[in-house]
Specification:
With 668 residues, the protein is mainly β. Helix content is 14%, strand content 42%. The chain is built from ten helices and 49 strands. The strands form twelve sheets. The protein has a five-stranded mixed sheet with strand order 26-27-28-1-29. A hairpin with a 5-residue loop joins strand 38 and strand 39.
Length: 668
């Protein structure tokens, strides 16, 4: 660990905790701010805290925030210049966090690579000590060869397997939501940079996402022609908004959270009641696709941008068009409104942004500088700056008072599709076709660290009953267990030799069961992260799995046209359920554990007696593959979703169809 760390490790645990933990807080509280500065420029202290199992990189990063405490700032020993070099060191720790979490021995190399060109005596003194560190091999940069810490990039959020098309940020600035061409929405913790939730349900690309002001719900728009409303506490879908006849490219929500406004390639804007899920009215007037929509803070007006090169301002009380904003020479792809509702900022394929007076409808000025289509724009809460994203792979920050460009944010390797800004105006979050989101310091600052999750499509997710953990399964052959409180990955479950297609978790939250394209299921201990045993018997891919409420049995569905019932105590197969003539895609089990309901490519569902292993009856009515099935808690009804675009509700007492739910324009 190094001579200093070895000496510290030899001390009693209470001493280590005090030295690495509370000592800095005590320095600040007792007025010894100078000692606080000295400790955080002491390389040996930094290394010891990173390497100590009770602390680590994030704890060290948090230490640097103590100097921002109001009491510390007002103290006579507070030194703004020294606070600046502490900010530099902290920014390097942010940028290097993903590396240092895995390889603590690389701290010296990261500090040298970023800070060698800074002439501050305190920085250089720290680097001289770092150069002498010899406890383990590390790569020593001889020049400041890593990205300079002045270019605005705070961190990169990785996890989507396809283009990021949309981004929104909660009003408290703590979470960002991203919509992707991988058909999912991800919820990110902006404090830790970790992925919190994956919202799955859309069957095609997600182009738009918005979040209510209270941060409790998200609304997404998709190529599947629907919008979905999500509960951000549970990650569950609340309901689907349908009636657009083509892709939904834009969505926004009123400040009171009661209405959503969506724009579509069916050339219309629709206003939705988020309490009932009903369409209130449709705004018609554009002659081509509606790419963008924004709403004033008072909820009285909406502004839409279209492929017809115009923007339109709408009265949301009457549904009438107020006026048309003309001036762009090509399609309008994005629009934002200043918080006072007096100005709109639009971005266009003509490479410009335009600032409009919403009282008169006049163009105030054009913002020029991007070399390609402007695809995204956001405005700071004070209305003084706009941040734009472009197909030229950059973002630009604009002064809305003068119309001047302030600076350019570079870092994405592909088109920038989306941008949002935190309410305090300090950070912007961008989404790109390079499959990442980036968090930018608008003061400016630097990349903090890179977030890595699954390396391929996520096919399945389950949540423990206490809501504290999620388990995801991926085509990268792994499962990951996530802490839903902190957003951090707890561990990775490795063992499947092919794509993980399904995952279920026991009611006590202690075990997960995964099904894979490798024809097996695996039972995992969620306390240790270890595989308990493998369930073998299927002759083709396992696509579905469910667990009985007593946690004693699992039921799996496979491409071999069968279901199997497994004893989770012994790992043995109890019996095989045969009867489907094609792939089994879905399975659910009643809460009493006595019956299973399966859905298949043969267009039917079957109800099985789990005591005898016999088929009770077949549910017929779908005209295409049954892809999903759920059962009500009382066990009296099943709900199925199909490739025929419908859902059906079934009476499990009689086997009769109760009703058909129509409205989806594509596969459920």
């Amino acid at each position: 660990m190094g001579e200093f760390a070895d000496k510290l490790a030899a001390k009693p645990l209470f001493y280590q905790r005090a030295y690495l933990g509370s000592l800095l807080q005590n320095h600040v509280k007792s007025g010894h701010v100078e000692k606080y500065y000295q400790k955080l420029t002491n390389f040996n202290f930094l290394m010891a805290k990173i390497q100590h199992p009770e602390f680590g990189v994030q704890a060290l990063i948090d230490d640097f925030n103590l100097v921002d405490d109001s009491e510390a700032v007002s103290h006579p020993e507070y030194n703004p210049e020294k606070a600046k070099f502490l900010n530099l060191i902290q920014s390097v720790l942010w940028m290097s966090a993903d590396i240092l979490e895995r390889y603590q021995t690389q701290l010296a190399g990261q500090l040298l690579g970023y800070l060698l060109d800074f002439e501050m005596p305190e920085i250089q003194a720290m680097l001289e000590i770092a150069k002498q560190w010899k406890a383990a091999p590390w790569l020593r940069p001889l020049t400041p060869c890593l990205t300079p810490s002045r270019r605005g990039l705070l961190r990169t959020l990785k996890g989507h397997s396809n283009s990021v098309n949309a981004v929104a940020v909660t009003e408290d600035g703590k979470r960002a939501l991203s919509g992707s061409s991988d058909n999912t929405i991800k919820v990110w913790d902006l404090t830790t940079g970790k992925e919190e939730l994956i919202l799955e349900g859309h069957t095609q690309w997600v182009y738009a996402v918005a979040v209510t002001a209270d941060g409790k719900r998200a609304i997404s728009g998709s190529d599947d022609k629907t919008l979905k409303v999500w509960d951000l506490t549970t990650g569950k879908e609340q309901f689907t908004l349908q009636y657009h006849t083509n892709s939904v490219y834009a969505v926004t929500v009123t400040e009171d959270g009661n209405r959503a406004i969506s724009g579509s390639s069916d050339n219309t804007i629709k206003v939705w009641d988020l309490t009932t899920g009903n369409e209130l009215f449709s705004l018609q007037g554009h002659s081509d696709w509606v790419n963008a929509v924004a709403v004033t803070e008072d909820g009285k007006r909406a502004i839409s941008g279209s492929w017809d090169n115009t923007l339109k301002v709408w009265d949301l009380t009457t549904g009438n068009e107020l006026f048309t904003l003309k001036g762009h020479s090509d399609s309008v792809h994005t629009v934002a409104v200043t918080p006072d509702g007096k100005r709109a900022i639009s971005g266009s394929r003509d490479k410009t942004l335009k600032v409009w007076d919403l009282t008169t409808g006049d163009e105030l000025f054009a913002l020029k500088g991007h070399s390609y289509l402007v695809n995204a724009v956001a405005v700071t809460e004070d209305g003084k700056r706009a941040i734009s994203g472009s197909f030229d792979n950059t973002l630009k920050v604009w002064d809305l008072t003068t119309g001047n460009e302030l600076f350019t944010l570079q870092g994405h390797s592909d088109l920038v599709n989306a941008v949002a800004v935190t309410e305090d105006g300090k950070r912007a979050i961008s989404g790109s076709r390079d499959k990442t989101l980036k968090v930018w310091d608008l003061t400016p600052g630097n990349e903090q660290f890179t977030l890595k999750g699954h390396s391929d499509s996520v096919n399945a997710v389950a949540v423990t009953p206490d809501g504290k953990r999620a388990i995801s399964g991926s085509e990268d052959k792994t499962l990951k267990v996530w802490d839903l409180t902190t957003g951090k990955e707890q561990f990775t479950l490795e063992g499947q030799s092919n794509s993980v297609n399904a995952v279920a978790v026991t009611s006590d939250g202690k075990q997960a069961i995964s099904g894979s394209l490798d024809k097996t299921l695996k039972v995992w201990d969620l306390t240790t992260g270890k595989e308990q045993f493998t369930l073998e018997g299927h002759s083709n891919s396992v696509n579905a799995v469910a667990v009985t409420s007593d946690d004693k049995r699992a039921i799996s569905g496979s491409w071999d046209n069968t279901l199997k019932v497994w004893d989770l105590t012994t790992g043995k197969e109890q019996f095989t359920l045969e009867g489907h003539s094609k792939f089994v895609n879905a399975v659910a089990v009643t809460s009493d554990g006595k019956r299973a309901i399966s859905g298949s490519w043969d267009n039917t569902l079957k109800v099985w007696d789990l005591t005898t292993g016999k088929e009770q009856f077949t549910l017929k009515g779908h005209s295409n593959s049954v892809n999903a099935v759920a059962v009500t808690p009382d066990g009296k009804r099943a709900i199925s979703g199909s490739l025929d675009k419908t859902l059906k509700v079934w009476d499990l007492t009689t086997g009769n169809e109760q009703c058909t739910l129509k409205g989806h324009s594509n596969s459920v």
